[in-house]
Amino acid sequence: MTSSAQNTPPARRDLWELPDVSGLVVGVLGGTGDQGRGLAYRLARAGQRVVVGSRKAERAEAAAAELGNGVEGADNAECARRSDVVIVAVPWDGHEATVAALRAELAGKLVVDCVNPLGFDKKGAYPIRPAEGSAAEQAAALLPESRVAAAFHHLSAVLLQDPEVERIETDVMVLGESREDTDVVQALAGLIPGMRGVYAGRLRNAHQVEAMVANLISVNRRYRAHAGVRLTDV
């Protein structure tokens, strides 16, 4: 007779054997925008040390003061210098210029791109495909001395910033060239209650993940929701 324990599938390595990221400083470029502020707030609320960056230090410092939880503010270059992991959460139209200007400061860092190249017309949101293939691949091309991953694309800025929301029930699809780096990003995602980081392939597949945000925008408008993504059987 087979025991229930024998019928239980083995735990998957990438969902439970993740590194300790408690000592890492996380910088958020674009930390004064809705998505950046929300990510900074959630990570800091989970106990992570966070630095938000902006083109102007004064604006970043003001945002940090509003976010509380020990969040610090600095201009983008200083934010990059002071951080171990840097999340890029700037608007798509400023993505290339912002990333290119910080090549020296981001050298040797793990850079996590969560930018979604989108256009909007009377029919709604639609994905844009950059020449490099995706925003994450553009960042990788601009930052040859950095390690670039892609994640945090499908999160609702409204939910992230709402202090009344205790849990955000969603998965974070994480892409990158190094499993050590994607493990770090998965661990950071897992700090936020209800959230789970799931490895989803290499950067060449980032376009599909970025493009899905156009579909979620349509879902949210139709159903007046803040939809995310949940993967089954993982």
From TrEMBL:
This is NADPH-dependent F420 reductase. It comes from the Bacteria. Residues 26-117 form the Pyrroline-5-carboxylate reductase catalytic N-terminal domain. Keywords: Oxidoreductase. PANTHER family: DUDULIN-RELATED, F420-DEPENDENT NADP REDUCTASE. It comes from Streptomyces synnematoformans.
